[in-house]
Amino acid sequence: MARAAAVASVVFTLIEAALGALLVKLGYTAQSQSPLRPAFLALHLANTLLLVAALTLTAHLLSRRKGFLRGSVHFTAPIGALATVLVVMLVGVTGSLARWATRSSRPVSLGMALAQDFSSASGWLVRWRWVHPGIAFAASFFLIWLLVRAAQRKTHWDNRNLSALVLLLLAAVYLLGLMDVLLLAPLWVQVAHLLAADSLWAALVVLTARLTIEPQ
Description:
This protein is an all-alpha fold. The chain has 8 helices and 2 strands; from the N terminus they run H-H-E-H-H-H-H-H-H-E. The protein has helices at residues 2-25, 37-62, 78-105, 110-117, 124-127, 131-152, 160-182, 187-212, and strands spanning 73-75, 213-215. It has a two-stranded antiparallel ribbon with strand order 1-2. The longest helix is centred in the middle third of the chain and has 28 residues, at 78-105.
């Protein structure tokens, strides 16, 4: 299984390079206001998250004392695990679009930002910024389900420390997200928010793999 994750890492790396080249070649960078730019940005970030997940899973599987062969494992509650990962991935994609919308609209106060969200004169991305915190709130229920499952199920791994790390990173992401809104997205908060979100994503991938992939 580590081999499959490594191959996936290579594939997603090639796709990442192709998408990055297309963004530059088509001019969807810097101050571009093309309506296609958000779609490319969303696709690019989705692939980035999949690449990080593949690399994280490769490192996790290679660090095990015994390798997992595809024929010697079974998958426990794969649908719920997949739904959790996809929802969290959607949070990341909508967060990227929300940051781009805030950067393009340049609000000077929180009141102005809220007014832009409900103004018919605003672009559709600005009016849909609320989707990101809305999906983030919904994703918290999936994460709680995963953490409860980690606490209830006994596996050959001790997931207590990893579950605590996921919970801590989740709190950090929400706190930094709130600061992002209140402070009108200063660069240092955006960077800290992105770092916490990527760390949460990597920890979530490992925890999900531990709860889903079981040796027979």
